[in-house]
Amino acid sequence: MDMIPRKAAKKTLQYADQYPVITITGPRQSGKTTLCKMIFPQKDYVSLEDVDVRNFAQQDPRGFLSRFPKGAVIDEIQRVPDLLSYIQTIVDHKQEAGFFILTGSQQFELLEGISQSLAGRTALMRLLPLTLNEAYTDKKADISLEKVLWTGFYPRIFDKKLNPTEAMLFYVNTYVERDLRMLINIKDLSKFEIFLKLCAGRTGQILNLSSLGNDCGINHTTAKSWISVLEASYIIKLLRPYYKNFNKRLVKSPKLYFLDTGLASFLLNIQNKTQMATHPLKGALFESFIISETLKHRFNSGKTDNLYYFRDNIGNEVDLVCDHGINLDAVEIKSGQTIASDHFKGLKYLNKLTDSIRNSHVVYGGDKSYVMNNVNVVSWKQLHSNLGISKD
Question: Is residue 392 part of a domain?
Fold first, then answer.
């Protein structure tokens, strides 16, 4: 199969004309290496996952980098973070745009090294798995929402036509457990597996660390540490509450979302699209999907995360608030195929609280998009042509 063109390519190429170093982060298997090989075919490529290569880079960093007089794509740079200071010296001397392209799947280690060594010298791209449009191109008319949610968006599933459940089993075994064990001292791996599944069962819910810890048999501090590692590895997203300038008692805890519904479905033991159709968490998975899609489109355009949710202490809620600085977009997310009047309740409430709302949207599980009560009703299939919330 041909490689899937990525929306992030355009912005990455633009940065390569402006900055000496491009750093691409994202979860394992989100397509970082493929993107680099596709848009920088002229560059030498080297992966620090390879033990021999890694040893060379650790023992003789200058000798290692001297092999690339025209720069290179260096994969999994977080495996040898000391290279970053040597790269800084080289790019300062060369003064050439797009010289090194670095990738890494562990955000926190990588960004700490970058902020110390490459501040002002690197552009940062975050690459999440495929968007809906990338995965299904022109075939959206023929696919069911249940299949989309169950399959998820990891490129390898589409490239190799893999069974999503099997692919996610191997993904969790190979990448999630191995990477995360390197980062935190997990003595009891079975406990961490339970923790992951418990998190999947709470996707779309307000995060309660005490409850999560109690259910898993770990203390609050450990639960907090494990959550932060899952977020920094792009497995989950914590959606923070929006409470700017409101004289209201508002919920202050974040909501937990899995960034890939296929991974969450696997952890929930959903094994096919038929099971998805009747699953009690289908609505929460749909919400996760819409929030993840919105985040992907922002990242692919080189924009920051500006996503929040709104909820007050008496239950008035808006699922997604996009803060554009001077104005907001408000989005209600409903998995059903029928629009009901109470879908507009939270949006109306927020509109009364602030005059900053630019657009209000209801994204739902049906096929038609239209305007109703001054609200854009948007089909999940036409999300990015009709939503426009990734634009500032």
Answer: no
